[in-house]
Amino acid sequence: MRILVDALAAEYGGIRTYVDNLLATWAAVHPEDELLVVVPQGLDLPTHGHDRHELRLRGPAALARPMAQTRSLPGIARAFRADALLATMPSTALVRVGVPTAVVVHDLRHELRPEQFSRARRLVRAVSYGRAYALADGFVAVSGRTLDDLHRLHPSTRSRPGVVVHHGADHVRDWPGTPGSGPAVAFAHHSNKNPGLVVDAWADARRRGLALPDLLVLGAGSVRQRLEDRVSASGLDGRVRVASYLPDEEFRRAFASAAAVVFPSDFEGFGLPVLEGMLLGIPVVAGPDPAVVEVAGGHAVVMQDWTPTALAEAVAAAMELPPGALATARDHAAGFTWARSVEQTRELLAWLSPRSRRRRRSARASGG
């Protein structure tokens, strides 16, 4: 197959992790396929031997990206005779590209948690995502929760093929580090990760004499000073450290060495750190978010409510998990592979391709 891959949004965060691992694994398991990967000019995302097409984005990415996609993707699809387009985010060309299009839907948080987004960002997503949903021939949802949300909030999508394709976690197998040799890790790069709740849980544990490990809060960015002030006010200096974004190798080492992965997110499309922690043999604590519960499969310690006390008690319980429970969680996470993700995505694209459509029409015509 010759597949056009729109990766213009894969600049950082979870979408970059998704695209990087999908491309690397696709090259390994289907070297016969030709992937035409479209990325922003100058982006350091590796494309793993696939054909690379760089587009220059003029102006703010939120506006420049859909213009570049609309201007360039139809021409690339036509020039290289692509069989299908895989849009790795639901923001792609605002016109039909000329080949069947499958859109990857990660979550609908901007619709279900609008208070976590600026008004401008909600508007851009409403326009670009809404157009992608209208034009798509099929959908790849990263969890059953995300597919249910898509069908419920956008009923017209029910009439087109939609498949649940979970992420892989096996990319962590070569991450350096010894589980338990470092502090617990939590995250602060988006408000739904609830870093303030995590700090408050450590403060609650301190007041009540619960023994929790030291804590490293990662990806603080613009909220770093506010979190550091909260740490100091809670008397946690020396026990809790707040860090900005770490270089990839340093992040991987910190994560793989963690005493626990603390992930009380109130909204996820998937929740990859949960599986990453499990596969590394690290205790995982999570909030009762539907996607996280789906992915964890009963192998994370889930907090009973959204209070600091509930989180502190969940972390304390996770630190007491026996080796057998961690081994069972590791076995569960081992079933989530990028090879499976590639195969399931490829099956949908093949089904949408013109050749597959012609075969189905021929079979119907012959009564087969």
Chart the SSEs and their pairings.
Elements: E1 2-6, H1 13-29, E2 34-40, E3 51-55, H2 61-79, E4 84-87, E5 101-105, H3 109-112, H4 119-135, E6 138-141, H5 144-153, E7 162-164, E8 184-187, H6 195-208, E9 215-218, H7 224-233, E10 240-242, H8 248-256, E11 261-263, H9 272-279, E12 284-286, H10 290-296, E13 301-302, H11 308-318, H12 323-334, H13 338-352, H14 354-365
Parallel strand pairs: 1-2, 1-4, 2-3, 4-5, 5-6, 6-7, 8-9, 9-10, 11-12, 12-13
Helix pairs in contact: 1-13, 6-11, 9-12
CATH topology of the largest domain: Rossmann fold
Compute the number of helices. 14
Find the CATH superfamily of the largest domain.
Glycogen Phosphorylase B
Query: What is the helix content?
Result: 40-55%
Query: How many strand units?
Result: 13
CATH class of the largest domain: Alpha Beta
* Spatial gap, N to C terminus: 25 Å
- Mean of pLDDT: 94
Specify the biggest β-sheet.
7 strands, parallel
Contiguous uncertain segments of 5+ residues? none
Order of helices and strands: EHEEHEEHHEHEEHEHEHEHEHEHHHH
Strand share of the residues?
Answer: 5-15%
Give the overall shape, derived from the CA principal axes: globular
| The CATH architecture of the largest domain | 3-Layer(aba) Sandwich
Number of domains: 2
Query: Taking strands numbered 1, 2, ... along the chain, how are they ordered across the largest sheet?
Result: 3-2-1-4-5-6-7
Using only C-alpha atoms, the radius of gyration works out to: 22 Å
Oligomer: single chain
Structural class: alpha/beta
